[in-house]
Each structure stands twice: as C-alpha cells, then as structure tokens.
Amino acid sequence: NYCVHTRGQGCSYTVSVSVLGLTVYISVFLSLTHFPLSDQEQVARVLERAVLESRVREMEEENRQIRLQLNQLQGTAGQPADGANHTECPRSPTVLKCELIHVACVCAGHNASRDVVTLVKSILFHRKNPLHFHFITDAVANQILSSLFQSWMVPSVQVSFYDADELKSEVSWIPNKHYSGIYGLMKLTLTKALPSDLTKVIVLDTDITFATDIAELWAIFRKFTDKQVIGLVENQSDWYLGNLWKNHKPWPALGRGFNTGVILLYLERLRRIGWEQMWRLTAERELMSMLSTSLADQDIFNAFIKQNPVLVHQLPCFWNVQLSDHTRSEQCYTEVSDLKVIHWNSPKKLRVKNKHVEFFRNLYLTFLEYDGNLLRRELFGCPSHATSESVQLQGALEELDEDDQCYDFRRERITVHRVHLYFLQYEYTPTGDDTDVTLVAQLSMDRLQMLEAICKHWEGPISLALYMSDAEAQQFLRYAQASEVLKNRKNVGYHIVYKEGQFYPVNLVRNVALRNANTPYVFLADVDFLPMYGLYDYLRKSVVQLDMANTKKALVVPAFETLRYRLSFPKSKAELLSMLDMGTLYTFRYHVWTKGHAPTNYAKWRTATTPYKVEWEADFEPYVVVKRDCPEYDQRFVGFGWNKVSHIMELDAQEYDLMVLPNAFMIHMPHAPSFDISKFRSSPGYRYCLQTLKEEFHQDLSRKYGAAALKYLTAQRNI
After folding, report:
1. Which residues, by range, are in coiled-coil regions (predicted)?
2. CA 534, CA 305: separation in Å to the nearest integer?
C-alpha cells in the first residue's frame, strides 16, 4: 500500500489486479485541486504507478485471451444459445489481438458530421484493436470528416471515404417518407460501395453511443452459422406489429422485426448469394402495395428477412438499446454493466421518454464533451502504421532542443490541432460578379458575445475560427442554436480548432478561418471590432473601383475604439468624426500603441474623399481587405505579440499597395485583457522569446525576399 500525504487535498485508494496468479496492489491518488509544489515528486511517482496499473491490465487481458484460446483448443469453451434478452458472456468468442475491425457509417450534411464524432469518440474510448472507418458521405461530410481525421492523427485508425452521389442512382427510385431521406437507404448498397476484398463490416447509425469495446460485437461474427449473413437486434417498439393506430400498415417483418441501427454484415457471403439483386426484387415487390418506405432501409431489410429468416443472426438486445418512446428497451438490461450500445433512434433524441434517460443522457454527454486529444493514444502491443504526416511531425519534434529557453514556443508551432470545419449548417451562394468579400476572424469562448452584433453589422459571408475545448464547443453550439440572430444566418462558417498546449495559437486559428473563406476577397478583421453599417456593400464597390482583380492591393479599413460598453454606433463618417471630437471615440490604441495604426494617417482620412496610398512603417498592423490567395499568417507567433505585424510586413514584402479607404471604418469594443497579454506583461521569458522569434522571422524574410527585405531589419533596429 502506498500513501501520499497532501495536506488533506485529496484521497487515495488501492486496487488489485491478478496476473497469472500474482496479485499486484497499486495505489492511485485522486486530487480535486492543484498539488502543492512540495508534493510534485511524490505525485510523479503516483502517476507512474497509475501508468503501471494500465499496463498490468493490458497484460491481464492478453493472459485471459490466451487462456480462452487454450480452452477452445481443449474443447471446453461453451457456446451459449442466442436470444433477444440473453446475457452473453463477453469472453466468448474473442477477437485476436491487433485484429483490424471495420466500421461503416453513412454520413451526410453538417449535423450528421457533428453527431458521428460522438459515436467515434465512444468507440475509441473503449477500443483495444486497430480500426478502419468507412464513411459513405456527401461532399459536405467528406470535407468535414477528412479534415478532422487528418488533424486528429489517432494511431491505429484508418479512414476511407466513398462518394454517396455515386450511389444515389441505386436507391433514388425508392419512395421514402423517413426524415433521413435518400441517405437512409444507402446501407442497402454497401456490398457495392465498399471494397470487394472486404469480407465483413459493422454498420452503425450516427446516433449510436458505445458503452463497451466494439471488439466484443465484432467477435459475434464468429458465432454466425454457415448460412447467416446479417446480424441484427430485434426491434424494441411495436411498429412492425401493426397495432399503433387504426389502419396502421407497416412493411412485412419477422415478428417484431429488426432494427438496422447496428448491423453485422458478412459482405463476402452477401455478395455470394446475390444480395444486390435480392433486396431490389424485395423492394420492387413490396412497393407495389406499400407505395413508399416509412423507415427507409429498415423496411426493406425486414421484408427481405421475412422471406429469408435463415440468413439472420439475432443479436442480444443490449447491442442496440433503442431509446425511442414506448419501447421494450428496459428489458435489455438489469445492471449498468449489461449495457453495450445505446441508440438514440427517436427524432426527439435526448428528450426521449425513458425511465433511465438521465443515465443514458449523461453517458452520451460524457463522450460529447470528452477531450478528443486524450484518444490519441497508441494501442499497447499493436504497432501503428506511420503516416507521412506523423513521420514529418516526429522528425520536427526530434529537431527541437528541450533545453532551449523558447522550447515551448517552438513546440507550439508544430503542434497539430484537431479541426472541425463547418460545425454548424452553412450555405453560401456565390455572387455572379466575383466581387464578394468574406469577413475573416478568430475568437475564443470569452468573445462569444460579439457574434450577434457582428452579424447585425455585416450581412455578407463570414468565416470564423473558434479556439475551444470539446466541452466549450458544445456550449457554443447551444448558444448558437438558442440565438435568433445566429440560427437564421446560414452564410457564417464556424470552424472549431480544439485546444491543446499552453499557448493560444492565434495565427494558426486565423489561417483556418482564412483557408475556408469561399469568396474571391477577404476582410481580415478581429472579432472585437464592429464594422460600420453598410461596410460589406462599400467594400464590394471598392474592389471594382480599385481594380483589385488585376492589381496587388490591400485596402485599409481605419480602426477606432470606444471605452464605453454601451455605444450609440455612428451611422456615417460625419457622425463618427463628431464623436471623435467629443471624446466618445478614439483612434485605435492611440494611448498605448500609437505605432500600430499611425501610418493610416487619421488626419488625412478626416477630409479624404478618395482612397489614398500609405507606406509601410515598423509595427504597422491595420485591418485589410485582400485577395483570398494572400500570404497566410506566420504560425510561429502564438499568444500576444507580432501576430498581425508580421503578416502586414509580408504583404509589403510581396509589394502590396496599402490603400486607405476614405469612407470605411470599424470600432473596437471594450473587453477584459486576454490571458496572453497578461503573460507578455508579467513574464521576461515570454518577452525574450518573442524577441527571438521576431529576429528569426526577419532572417526568414530576408532569405525569401532578398535585399528588399533588409528595410524591415533596419526599421526594427531603429525602434
């Protein structure tokens, strides 16, 4: 027994595990607050023991599998009978260690792409085997999920995508009343859609949550008889019994029918019996009297099984506990440990009526808000195939010097953050004149209150990158769905960059928003500024007036600020100048960082009626309109300091003309100082590293642009 003394700030407990008959006792300490500095060494030892405990458990699992294999060889492994409510022993049959498990999902649109992430998290949390996900997607889901998995970089996980548009002709002839639309029929096409050498696959709906290792479900394939080709759980509602209301006429089904939210498909056998032709003939026959499907693919699967019952393997019902209203799902479990898979198959989703719905909801919310970074763990004992991205990242990490005073800054630059593009519904129709402008900005949770005001001031498309944790992303989702302003704006692209590391990677987040703008021009802004009313239309006219299509220009929008939280926003330049004279408004940062915007030449702007050119000066960081293919922000700059300055410097190095717009303005709204500016002000080490990064940026600029870039180094030295 180990004991850690922490002045009453936590508690310890002892667990025991048995490995090959040897009992090992390990104490794990749980703290509810930060550890005192003097206890760090003891805590490190406890954490080491926690890691050991995890490894011991893995060893115990290996040992259990070996014993089971020996028992099977000796003929002692029993095979329990099937049954809808029978409690199946998870130890028989088993899956080989490191055996690849295949999972397929049909996913279309923004909402389904968001839902499937929670499903994937629940699978990854419990899994001990390599996984290969097969996604049948539309163009939207393909873009979202391919970007997410590429940036997630989970070891021992492969992902393949298949174009749903190529499969539509296979099922578009089937009338379907289900809310899932044509995509609700596509599971019928999997023998054709998936690779011909893929022998079996687990097929899941996106509204599924796993409460156990998916390998237990995969192992049931070994229990199929020679004739069985499909594994399903009995439907837990009375739908197919035909007694829900007067004249209710469901599709034919065997007994209560089967639910297709969780399917084991033996693809090799299905192809052998001519599945594609068989389900088509079944659908054609039944549609002569039924006219349309009510439950999409499920109706056709059930009609097929009714005619061919020998082909189905009935799974225990805890493999698909169906949480729709008025189901028999409560008969599937007596203990929490009985639960395997939860299926939110009611349109009400989390609002469904069920005696234990609070428990199920909390389980779902756990994975919904779970930090996906924690799932980037190697499988113990299973070698992972290294991708080119992971090899490149590992090489970059090995080049870093951990004794470097600025190691943390350099480490942040190469950190790969998970990115979920288009977190909410997004619709954009390009204008026909190629003058459209997207407002591009980034924010974190503490600036969320600015979104409604920005949407009221800017009616054009917006690309926003939000730096958030998984839990914060869900808070944002609830906020956006409850806002009348935000939920009615479909031309705003919200892109989540998930938190990782100790710094705010501001330029990486900006680049995510910039890359995902869909217009020829972008207005590079900050979220704590409100653009003047009508700025969107004014910028589009300026793009034409200044021949932006054929010249290299950056249009400067003059920045002002107010120190008042309540502001009567000026409706014109004349009104703004009046407020400036009265002291209600100020030129931006005139009292703390004059150099940042002084080159705008506010004195000239007061009387200007036409755009005028200004020259670059050191530390100039205006907000500009440029072509979408402009240089990206330099990602070495994290947190506070030089993140915009370096970008304007590169625009100047590429010979962009800085043109100030005479009738445009934006106003900065007051807010509490960011955490990063506080670190900059209080930490000499932070300021030293920022200066080091500046010097390295200058050197890189000189290598890239030659002698023309020397002026930046000279200007910096003269400050």
Report:
1. 49-76
2. 62
Number of C-beta neighbours around residue 421 at 10 A: 24
Q: Measured between alpha carbons, how far is 141 from 106 in angstroms, rounded to an integer?
A: 10
**Exposure string for 549-559, b = 16+ CB within 10 A, e = fewer:** eeeebbbbbbb
Q: Are strands 553-557 and 529-531 parallel, antiparallel or unpaired?
A: unpaired
- Supply angle C-alpha 511, 506, 125, rounded to 5: 85
Given this model, what pLDDT does residue 675 score? 64
Q: How is the chain split among helix, strand and coil, in percent rounded to 5?
A: 45, 20, 40
pTM for the whole thing?
Answer: 0.83
Contact of 329 with 352, CB cutoff 8 Å: no
Instruction: Report the residue count for the chain.
Output: 719
Least confident of 218-232, 368-382, 700-714: 700-714
Helix axes 357-368, 109-126, angle to 10 degrees: 90
Calpha distance 228→222 (Å, rounded): 11
Separation CA 130–CA 382 (nearest Å)? 8
- Exposed, middle or buried, 310 (CB in 10 Å: 0-12/13-18/19+)? exposed
- List, in sequence order, every beta strand (DSSP E) within 20-141: 22-31, 101-107, 131-137
User: Which DSSP category does 610 fall into?
Assistant: S
- Report which secondary-structure segment, H or E, holds 624: strand 623-627
| H-helix segments, 291-329 | 297-307
Within 8 A by CB and 6+ apart from 210, the residues are 119, 122, 123, 125, 126, 340, 341
Buried b (16+ CB within 10 A) or exposed e, 435-459: bbbbbbbbbbbebbebbbebbebbe
Q: Which amino acid is at 250?
A: P
| Structure tokens that stand for 506 in this block | 């501001």
Residues forming beta bridges with residue 136, ordered by sequence position: 106, 162
> 71: burial class by Cβ within 10 Å (0-12, 13-18, 19+)?
middle
Confidence check: pLDDT of 521 > 80: yes
pLDDT at 218 over 90: yes
Model pLDDT for residues 453-481, shown as the tens digit of each residue: 999 999 999 999 999 999 999 999 999 99
pLDDT band at residue 573 under the 50/70/90 scheme: very high
Residue 4 has pLDDT above 60, yes or no: no
Measured distance CA(379)–CA(520) in Å, rounded: 45
Confidence of residue 82 (pLDDT cuts 50, 70, 90): very low
Asked if residue 609 lies in contact with residue 662, where contact means CB atoms within 8 angstroms, the answer is yes
Query: Side by side, which strands form the sheet with 321-322?
Result: 208-210, 341-343, 321-322
Q: Is 526 in a helix, a strand, or coil? A: coil
Enclosing H/E stretch for 715: helix 710-717
CB atoms within 10 A of CB 330: 12
Query: Smallest Cα–Cα separation from 657: which of 719, 623, 614, 711?
Result: 614
Residue 190: predicted pLDDT: 97
Structure-token pair, residue 318: 């805890």
Phi then psi dihedrals of residue 277, to 5 deg: -75, -35
Give CA separation, 486 vs 295, 431, 450, in Å.
32, 22, 11
**Residues whose CB falls within 8 Å of the CB of residue 347, separated by 6 or more in sequence, listed in order:** 179
Name which residue leads in pLDDT, 65 or 668: 668
Cβ–Cβ contacts within 10 Å for residue 222, how many? 11
Residue 667 contacts residue 453 (beta carbons within 8 Å): no
Per-residue pLDDT band for 6 (boundaries 50, 70, 90) equals: very low
Three-class secondary structure of residue 106 per DSSP: strand
